[in-house]
Amino acid sequence: MTRESDCYALGMVILEVLSGKPPFPGDSNLIVIVKVINDERPEKPQGREEVWFTDDLWEILEQCWLPQPERRPAIEVVLKCLQQNSTAWLPLPPDSDDYAQSDSDDQSDFTSSHGSSIDPSTFLDTIVNLTHHRTPLQRTR
To answer: Which residues span the domain enclosing 72?
Structure first.
């Protein structure tokens, strides 16, 4: 594991958490592997989730997935972009059957397409905490 592979993975986690869908929804693991080997990357979410993926955020996610690991951004750059974008996140309007009504009127919560409520500040805090307190994995033989 390297910082570059961590950056790639962080980009995919951000995509999945904010969209509520895996990076290549509907594809088998084998197809995903082939797509990644062939430098295919996930498409920018459309519809309701698109509002969370500003051009700046999508650009930084695409940089996280660059085929040349040495060209991927530092985690701090990704976090800064997330912080800048998270201040504008708003709840999604209920326009589909998969929208989960929240028991509270707290507008700081929003619901992903798979129905789980996500608090943007909690998500951001968790990502920051994980990246700043990461302990290197030990390889076992």
So the answer is: 3-89+105-132
What is the residue type of 79? L
Element (H, E) at 110: strand 110-111
Report if residue 137 sits inside a domain: no
pLDDT, tens digit, 9 for 90 and up, residues 7-41: 999 999 999 888 888 999 999 999 999 999 999 99
User: In the numeric block, which tokens belong to residue 133?
Assistant: 């307190």
117 phi/psi in degrees, rounded to 5 = -80, 130
- In the numeric block, which tokens belong to residue 123? 């998500």
Residues 6+ apart with CB under 8 A from 96: 48, 113
Position 20 in a domain? yes
Please report, for the domain that includes residue 59, its CATH number: 1.10.510.10
What pTM value is reported for the model?
0.68
- The token duo for 113 is 């397409």
Distance from C-alpha of 7 to C-alpha of 15, rounded to nearest angstrom:
12
Residues 120, 127: Cα–Cα separation, whole Å? 11
Domain tally, the chain? 1
